[in-house]
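Need a sequence for this fold. Nothing fancy.
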């Protein structure tokens, strides 16, 4: 299934690299990546093909990253 993670994070150095690394550790290919800078926050949308159970585990991993404020997951 294709899932999209909508991530809100503080605008800090290396935050995008740390997020992408979470997907890389699971050997997933990112099919879409959108990034928007809004004042002191960054909105990032990442779309990947992944099974439901793993999608929710990745969401939990993303929440544990430094500077992450919110992670919404959508089909």
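Here you go.
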């Amino acid at each position: 299934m294709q899932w999209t993670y909508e991530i809100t994070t503080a605008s800090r150095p290396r935050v995008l690299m740390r997020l992408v690394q979470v997907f890389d550790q699971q050997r997933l290919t990112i099919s879409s990546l959108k990034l928007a800078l809004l004042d002191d926050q960054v909105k990032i949308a990442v779309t990947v093909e992944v099974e439901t159970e793993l999608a929710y585990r990745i969401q939990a991993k993303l929440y544990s990253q430094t500077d992450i404020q919110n992670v919404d997951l959508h089909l």
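For context: The mean pLDDT is 95.
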